[in-house]
Please model this.
Amino acid sequence: MALVLAGGAMIMGGSSQASEKETVVERDYSKVRAGDAPAQQTVAQMMAKSDGCYSCHVKTDAPTMHATPAVRLGCVDCHGGDASVRGNSELEHDDPAYVAARELSHVLPKYPDGWHYPSSANPKRTYTLLNKEAPEFIRFINPSDYRVARESCGACHMPVIEAAERSIMASGAMLWGGAAYNNGIAPFKNYVFGEAYTRDGKAAKIVSPGAPAGTVTDAQKARGALAELYPLPAWQVIPPGDVFRVFERGGRVINPAFPEIGLPNPTGSIQRLDEPGRPDLKQSNRGMGTGLRVAIPVLNIHKTRLNDPFMWYMGTNDQPGDYRHSGCAACHVVYANDREPRHSLTYAKYGRDGQTQTVDPTIANKLEPEHGDSHGGGHGDVKQPGDSEHGDDHSPPLGASDKEGPVKEKGHPLRHIFTRSIPTAQCMNCHMHQPNIFLNSYLGYTMWDYESDAPFMWPKEQKYPTAEEVREVLDRNPEGASPKGKWADIDFLRNVYDLNPYLKDTQFADYHGHGWNFRGIFKRDRSGNLLTAEGNMATYGTDTEHIVDPDDPEKWRKEGEGKFVEPGTNPGKAVHLMSIHAEKGMQCADCHYAQDSHGNGMIYGEVANAIEIGCKDCHGTADAYPTLRTSGPAAPPKGNDLSLLRNPDGKRRFEWVWNEDGQRVLKQRSIVDPNLEWTVSLTKDSVDPQSPYFNAKSARAKTVSKDGADSGLFEFGTGIAPEERAHGEKEMACFTCHLSWTTSCGGCHLPIEANWKTEDHHYENGYTRNFATYNPQVARDQMFQLGKHQTTKGNQIAPVRSTSALVLSSTNINRERIYVQQPPIAASGFSSQAFAPHFPHTVRKEETKQCSDCHLSDKDDNNAIMSQLLLLGTNYVNFVGLNAWTGEEGGFEAIRVTEWDEPQAVLGSYLHKYAYPDYYKQFVEENGRELKDWVRGKAFDEDLSGETKAFEEFANVHEGTSDRVGCLQLRGEYMFVAEGKGGFRVYDVASIANKGVSERIITAPFSSMGHDTHVDTTNATCMALATNQPINPLRNTEAMREANQEQAFLPIYNYAVITDSVEGLVLVNINTMADGEFRNN
Model:
């Protein structure tokens, strides 16, 4: 789509959202504005609308963008412009005559600087620039953008366009709705927020196509369809869902209109001045939704790159894995993003830098203005002239940092052509991220943990980035740790895959969406030893025959295997746990067809509800061969018939054939590579003793009887009636057993900071001075937990995972930390650490779940495994906060144990050693590992700046108590303490890290008439809370439970439980500590 612009002087730069200062260029589009593209026309009419274009462009890959010659469209039909203007292709592109023809024939932008005009490459990080730009120019650079697609594509594709506009990939409803509900912002589990725009870039409401519009039937609602989605409100007016102390009533001296640093504006009234050591921290002197008494998580959605940009926007086009356009072209126009053949198949040879292979001479020879890279390698492609055959070598030429010479311009699609042959690498532009259902796992990767092979990823000498350097990196990668790591350098990032032969602990992916690194997951036993293909994962270091020696030179690559391997190959002795489907070469589009990608026209808020495909549609069940009809929640009543699908080369996608042994088998052909096909495993054959594909383990797992506990004999086999089976298909999802691993994210830390002026990434693109980085806390691959799936999935037993719960901090304009590492509370009153059913897409044939992963072992060696399975907790995820809290004989103490900056490494730890080598040396060698009170840093660095080595206070804060502390527990901003003869007391620790507060732990912020958290028991020996996560049972009303299909709280969650050596067991209701009203504490 971006290929149509003619060349010219190259203007490159960084972020391309229209600057606040950019002057709008008013344009007259009357001569270049196109009408709606026609469904039919003659060849002569088509050529008349392209004639002038070819005078400069000479030739293109597919004149109509469609592979079929049956489509008749001229250049102007799609793009607009004036085809009557003729140029001279022999002229240099900066020749005045050439430039004059280009300016007359092309549609010109209102924001030329933002688009780096006249460059035709996709600019970096455009975000809301599309909302500001003229629709005529948007159509010129991308006729398939949803703002204009009805005009350029609607004559033939209107039903698809209308479905795609409502699809969850366009609306982003699951993240926005899930974030709003699980962080207490909006009480709707049936989500109500989604992104959409009008033709001129205004926020739009999305309505279902019901009769009347904006309604759904009871049957549609039961399958998860939503009636409407509203634009996400501006964060400045949404009341906070959080009950942090700074959001309580108050703010006597706080200006509700965002005070300026250094301008206190005193009125002369002594009552309006802050008390020394006790600053007024409340966020507004008015009501909710004023000043900064607002929903900060919504600010993060608007401003921090979470899982955006969605389909209404272009990809960021700034690093491997982020190259794409908007609208239909986001999927159907392929970009070079990943060199791994199992991720890209026939596109792998084109590299990972968004460089074109077009025949259009105005684009083909464009070069990066600075030293760049070139790419290549061989892999067959679909009907493209000059391409090598399937199976050629994948070794690319030297990368950017290895080869001298000019580099092709980045930010272009491979060719000017639509395709249904979409590689997984294109999908990973978005689906590499937790709120986008995190499908790295399909390829066998998860987020890097900052520790695996740390010596290769962190600078040997500690990096002290300036504010300018930090901002430059965070615009591209929202991780707070990234400016300090080697991957802050884009050339290092794009070549991380090349480190793999030298690594000890993991292997990295070749794509880097968001600028992130992704580590490989490998087959291991429960003690962490790498295993070969024959190894038993349910052992504890005892399967020594199949343990891979850590120093084995063939651990990652067997002798003879190249840098990249063919589909169907596991390259090393260690088994890379990508889905068996991916290992065979299946791309996402081989399973998720047109409807799953475009939507079925209804609005959905959850991915599971929007999917039509199911495992049994292709694999069948233990009792029946597959019908090849879709059966998911979004499928039509009788399902779509997969046997009718045809690939781009005309062959059947699925076909029943007879193999050489006379067996009837199901074949599937790759939608991307016409030379690749595979035999589909059929569940019925795997349980049939008469079949050559019989597998005893499979038969036992699928047909074992419920009965047998009394006799100790559990029968299995096809003779067991379906309703008598322990693992019936209606009761248990296939992937519950067939997954090899699942990801779990223990939360993301979003520390909001004032004094960072940044732009919004959605809607009107305002600029404000608060910004939060985005920092995964715990991303583990060893956890396995079960729960019940949602109503639309029949409440099957399925794997569950924690999904990106937030931990929030805030630094104000005076650099005071006004709340620290606080989890919000969900709208339901439950913890924000939400769990959800999850298909991890890590299906394997051998590395599946075994009996002792879900049932008590006869060896009595899996009690902790069972505890974790049932979500009872095993400390696999344990948040080490800024302070460790310890009780003492006459008080308790908050001891500083981590860094504040990201990554928040524990002092003296392995991560600390590599991420902060100077700080580690100071702590270990100068402080002798003692956790003492001290101040690190300098007022000014070598450049006389205070930015890079600023003072950091390490304070251990002590609070006296009236007797020995028996037990203490932190919840939110309160410390619950059993202090012997002093009874039970709750302390306010909200300001524990605030440099502006003298008394950082207090018994009460004011008179006991409004705040009395002391229970005078005789001798409180200990206390406990049902959970240390902030909760509020008062939110969990009957109406809330009915509307959202929620559970009720058990009564114990209302109380703190106190043991008293004299009085016995004492229960104290503590709900008023979580209602946001401080006058009833």
Remarks:
- Residues 176 and 654 are 37 Å apart (CA to CA).
